[in-house]
Specification:
It is built from one helix and five strands; from the N terminus they run ββαβββ. By secondary structure, it is mostly beta strands. It has a five-stranded mixed beta sheet with strand order 2-1-5-4-3. The longest helix is centred in the middle third of the chain and has 6 residues.
C-alpha cells in the first residue's frame, strides 16, 4: 500500500466505518476529478483488461444526484497498471 494513501477514504466504505481507509495487501487507484475526487478504488484482482475499461461508480454528488453514476478511466500516462483513474463525466 502506498504510504501517501493512509488515512484516505476507499470508495464504497460505510459512512459509519471507523477506518474507511485502504487495507494492506489490496491494490488501489486514486479517483481524480469529479465528485469522487481523492477517494481510492479497490482494484484488487482486476485483470489488465478490466482496469483498461474503467468504471461507472454510483455517486449522490454527481450531476444526476442519487442513482447517477460517474465515469472514471485510467490515466493513460500511468501505463498498463495505472495508479489514477480520471473523471470523464457523469451519466444518468
Amino acid at each position: 500500500m502506498d504510504a501517501a494513501w493512509r488515512g484516505r477514504r476507499v470508495y464504497g466504505a460505510d459512512r459509519d466505518d471507523p477506518d474507511p481507509g485502504p487495507e494492506p495487501g489490496h491494490d488501489y487507484v486514486e479517483l481524480v476529478g469529479g465528485p469522487l475526487d481523492g477517494q481510492l478504488l479497490d482494484v484488487t484482482g482486476w485483470s489488465p483488461l478490466e482496469v483498461a475499461d474503467g468504471v461507472l461508480l454510483m455517486s449522490e454528488r454527481g450531476e444526476f444526484g442519487p442513482g447517477g453514476r460517474c465515469a472514471y478511466e485510467p490515466d493513460e500516462a500511468d501505463g498498463v497498471y495505472p495508479t489514477r483513474f480520471g473523471w470523464r463525466g457523469d451519466v444518468p
